[in-house]
Amino acid sequence: MIKINNIVEYKRAGDPEWRFVSGGSDYEKALERFEDAKKTITDAAEIRIRVKVTQSQIAEEWRRGEADA
After folding, report:
1. DSSP per residue over the chain, as a string?
2. Which of 21, 1, 8, 2 is nearest to 51 (CA)?
3. Helices (H), 14-58
4. In this predicted structure, what is the pLDDT of residue 49?
5. Nearest to 10 by CA among 45, 39, 36
6. pTM above the 0.85 mark?
7. What is the C-alpha end-to-end distance of the chain, expressed in Å?
8. Which tens digit of pLDDT belongs to each residue from 24-62?
């Protein structure tokens, strides 16, 4: 299973840490939030959208009793 999360982040001048505004799986909404952040966060030196992709799957599974029957 693959999960995609878009995160709008911003960084203030002189601040080493990134802060996040929002996330979500819909990239179009993330773009809208990105544009909103450019207008509303006046002290931001950088703004970006980070896409986080996570994959999770079971590689091997064993259950007691089922294999022994």
Report:
1. -EEEEEEEEEEETT--S-EEEEEES-HHHHHHHHHHHHHH-TTEEEEEEEEEEEE---S----TTTTT-
2. 8
3. 27-40
4. 96
5. 45
6. no
7. 30
8. 899 999 999 999 999 999 999 999 999 999 999 888 999
